[in-house]
Amino acid sequence: MSSTTPPSLEIAADKSAFKHLKEEFVSGLTGGSIQEINIVTLVALSSYAVWCTLQTRFSFFSIPQGSKVPSLSSLLVDFLLNWVALTLSITIYASHPFAFNLLILAPVAIVYVSLPSIVATRQRTAQAVLKRRDRKIRVSAHDLNSLSTPSQYAGSLVNNDYVSATFTEPASTHNSNHENVANLGSCYDSSSPYSCTTTHDQSHPLASSASSSSTSISSMSVDAYLPKKSFLTTYRAGMMIITCIAILAVDFRIFPRRFAKVETWGTSLMDLGVGSFVFSMGLVSARGPLKEMFLKQQPDLWASLKRSIGQTTSVLLLGLLRLLLVKAVDYHEHISEYGVHWNFFMTLGFLPPFVTLFNFVSNYTSPAAMSLGVGVVYQALLTYTPLTRFILTAPRTGIVSMNKEGIFSFIGYLSIFLAGQTTGFYTLPTTPRHIPYVSRLLGSGSSGPLAASRKTMLTYLLVAGIGHVGLFLICTKGLNMPVSRRLANLPYVLWVTSINIMYILLYLLVEVIFYPSSDHAPESKYEDAVPWGLEAVNDNGLAVFLLANLLTGAVNLSVNTLDVKNVQAITLLVIYAALLATAAGIMKRNGWRVRV
User: Fold this and answer.
1) For the chain, percent of residues with pLDDT exceeding 70
2) Considering 22, 146, 250, 493, which has the largest number of Cβ atoms within 10 A of its Cβ?
3) End-to-end Cα distance, the chain
4) pLDDT at residue 175, as a whole number
5) What angle is formed at CA 75 by the lines to CA 581 and CA 281, rounded to 5 degrees?
6) How many CB atoms lie within 10 A of CB 166?
7) 359, 358, 363, 323: which is closest to 344 by C-alpha?
8) Which residue ranges does UniProt annotate as crossing the membrane (predicted)?
9) What per-residue string of b and e applies to 42-56 under the rule 16 or more CB within 10 Å gives b?
10) CA–CA separation, 557 vs 561, rounded Å?
């Protein structure tokens, strides 16, 4: 630069050069192996296993009586396990993910074997209480048969301090007693250790599990039919945390380039993250259709479309705001990711109305078939039409060609969303018998918890996971189709779906190992099996994601991330994680739920 060049031009030239360097830093990448990605992301599961060990053996994370939050030491360990460990797994220990997992899990194996579980002790105690109660009720029922008049029966109640009720007929009371025994005992063979609905007082400590087949579905409340599930909360929160960490870490050199988003073909950690975000949203979106089915409400297409358009408008406004801010501050962009104007919030924003239409159609067909059908049809267009060539090589001359990646990859993300919703139909409710296609498959005369038991959910997740893995291998190995997040093609859809289903399966297995259940022993409460910090993230996932994007932009505008040394980078990432965790905790502590 000449000495006669004005300083302002020199600054502008420096900014332009720096922006170009940052764009090059995240461009032209080819990704890494799926095996390495799997092992790296397993750290979230390993950390949760450590948390479960500390909780079930020592009640380390229990919230003190009268408080809304755990102790400071509990929060710190929670943060170290669920935030810092994941930060280290994609930075310092990125080249040794298997060893890092072993380092985390080694103490778990020792403590798990050597110390008894507090949960198991509680279950044995409760089982003994239930057996004693069962014997008393059976004796009481036997005595009732020998009583001939209501006055004799009423007199007998005075001598039974464990019964408090009003009766008119000894025979009907006899039946009621046995129904109560059946209902109480069956509460503990449920799909999740964290929900129950019976005719008993729900504040009773033994009435906190899901009801079984002896309790009519019609007697359930919506909350009992769609209870919170600990394995889904931990899965969603863990996915959100590693995604938020990665969107800032990618701008530092300590973050391996093979984990950053690929240019066109290949797999990477961040490619999996963006697809998993959509899958996770699809999973929880199943609550709406399930609630309508449970209440036997006739879906109103136009009313549903109006609601979905409201959701679309708010998220699209976020996407527009992000676009304006990026252009205003001349922030570095990876144009081939979504296009010139499109961004991920726009993809999220356009999903609701399309999903509403597919939900309406799902009353007549299987949502799993719809998800796969969308992916197959889109892949056929990519393969047998010039669409792939248009997306990858067409000049950006019009509004469509300028945003071709975002517009067409939306179809693949829609397929992923529907796959997540299908998984939600099997994992969210106590029983899916009100889903039409399940009822047809199992028969209208079926009774009992169809997907309420853990065994059934494990079976579904295993079969669905293996099925999607098989289809993925057929596409990639048999038909030689490469994975492309840029296109969101069928191999990408199957990869994201299979990984997420398998991880949900693994989280459920961890729950089964640390919080086992039996036919007569009550399972643990939801709060006992979910880290407080993870529930805070799960409650306000989109708000945390928005804050992560804002903080990432602030760091990049104030720090030359390419020149930051490794120690400084880790320090910044931990501070960034702490801010996100604190914000999520404050929202949970105050009961705030940010709805977009």
Assistant:
1) 74
2) 493
3) 48
4) 41
5) 40
6) 7
7) 323
8) 37-54, 75-94, 100-121, 237-255, 309-329, 341-361, 368-387, 407-428, 458-480, 492-515, 567-587
9) bbbbbbbbbbbbbbb
10) 9
Closest CA to 526 of 64, 192, 116: 192
Give the DSSP H or E segment for 542.
helix 541-558
C-alpha span between 567 and 234 (Å, rounded): 29
Cβ partners under 8 Å of residue 557, min gap 6? 329, 331
Helix axes 118-145 and 150-158, enclosed angle (nearest 10): 150
What are the Cα distances from residue 388, in Å, to 56, 84, 275, 339? 52, 40, 20, 15
> Who contacts 470 (Cβ-Cβ below 8 Å, separation ≥6)?
none
Token pair 């020199």: residue: 10
What is the rounded CA–CA span in Å between residue 391 and residue 404? 6
Tell me the whole-structure pTM to 2 decimals. Answer: 0.81
Distances (CA, A) of 187 to 190, 324, 430: 7, 54, 12
pLDDT(127) > 60: no
CB neighbour list of residue 312: distance below 8 Å, 6 or more residues apart: 349, 350, 351, 352, 353
Four-residue CA torsion sign, 427, 430, 435, 437: positive
SS3 115: coil
Q: Nearest 5°: phi and psi at 3?
A: -70, -20
d(CA 296, CA 299): 9
Using the predicted structure, report yes or no on whether residue 502 has a pLDDT greater than 90.
yes
Residue 261 Ramachandran class (φ > 0 left, ψ -120 to 50 alpha, else beta): beta
- Given 3-state DSSP classes, what are the helix, strand and coil percentages for the chain, each rounded to the nearest 5? 70, 0, 30
Q: How many residues does the chain have?
A: 596
Residues with Cβ within 8 Å of 460's Cβ and at least 6 positions away in sequence, in order, are 426, 427, 451
The mean pLDDT value of the chain amounts to 81
Pair 59, 72: CB distance under 8 Å: no
Spatial distance between the Cα atoms of 287 and 211, rounded to a whole number of angstroms = 19
Residue type, 98: F
Q: By C-alpha distance, which of 368, 375, 383 is closest to 479?
A: 383
Question: Is residue 121 pLDDT above 70, yes or no?
Answer: no
- Taking the C-alpha atoms of residue 453 and residue 212, their distance in angstroms, rounded to an integer, is 9
Place of tokens 């928005």: 546
Residue-wise pLDDT tens digits, 338-376: 999 999 999 999 999 999 888 887 666 778 889 999 999
Q: Tell me which of 126-135, 280-289, 314-323, 387-396 is least confident.
A: 126-135
Whether residue 203 is predicted with pLDDT greater than 70 in this model: the reply is: no
Between CA 320 and CA 342 the distance in angstroms is 9
Name 471's Cβ contacts closer than 8 Å, sequence gap at least 6.
Answer: 372, 494
Residue type, 466: I
Question: Exposed, middle or buried by CB within 10 Å (0-12, 13-18, 19+), for 299?
Answer: middle
Task: Give the pair of three-digit tokens for residue 65.
Answer: 């009586």
Over its C-alpha atoms, the chain yields an Rg (Å, rounded) of 27
Task: Pick the more confident residue, 192 or 496.
Answer: 496
| Separation CA 166–CA 499 (nearest Å) | 55
Helices of type H across 187-227: 222-225
Least confident of 115-129, 360-374, 547-561, 579-593: 115-129
